[in-house]
Automatic annotation (TrEMBL):
Keywords: Hydrolase, Metal-binding, Nucleus, Zinc. It comes from Pogonomyrmex barbatus (red harvester ant). One of its GO terms (cellular component) is nucleus. One of its GO terms (molecular function) is zinc ion binding. The gene is LOC105426695. The keyword Transport does not apply. The lineage of its organism: Eukaryota, Metazoa, Ecdysozoa, Arthropoda, Hexapoda. Pfam families: DUF1907 (PF08925). It is found in: Nucleus. This is Ester hydrolase C11orf54 homolog.
Amino acid sequence: MNNENISNFDTIPIDLFIPDKIKLATVVKNELSTSFGEVTAEWVDCPDLTQEPFNLAAPGLGGDATLLDIGGTANIFPFRQLKIYDFKNILNQLNRSQNNNFIIGGGLSTQPMTLNYGHLIMNGTFAPVANEIIAVSNKSRFAFRNRFNDQGEEEQFALEILNNPFSKCHMYGNFFVSQGLREQVLKVEAKERTGHDFIEAIQRGISRIFPSKLFSNLIVVQL
């Protein structure tokens, strides 16, 4: 297995479709109404997402939003290659390091101390570069299989809080990057399910009304 820290890499920018806000809210509400008894979908000022029940590292989702698709399964099959992608390097290469950045999403990673493989649940902020340093404030999680605990007893899974400045993804990942600003967001509430689940219903409505479109600025937080 090859270990490789990726500091220079190719990027492929893709312009994404941004729908009309009112039309998007209508599409979401109409589709969810076919699968839920009570539905609301409206644009509102973003609440402070650092508070309960969200507990994100930044107060909002707005500001220069970007989707990142890092690496891929080719780094795992047919032969595993330990490629390490540092978000600080990525922000530098995307010319974003002069501003605040908020990154959420998921990917494969290794536990910083033991190098156990697991899933990175990214939730961190990156301050503007100062004296060639990008400070990281981390509220991320790392989910991994821990075969034995300190007492020698077998455990299936564990969830670790990463409150250190860990800022790396291994092999692959999908992430949403913004400046963490509190701008307007689409608030969706659905109760009394009678058909498709929440995510599937939204996807069905969007794909039917906006066929063959790649979307930007759409984040679904399912509590």
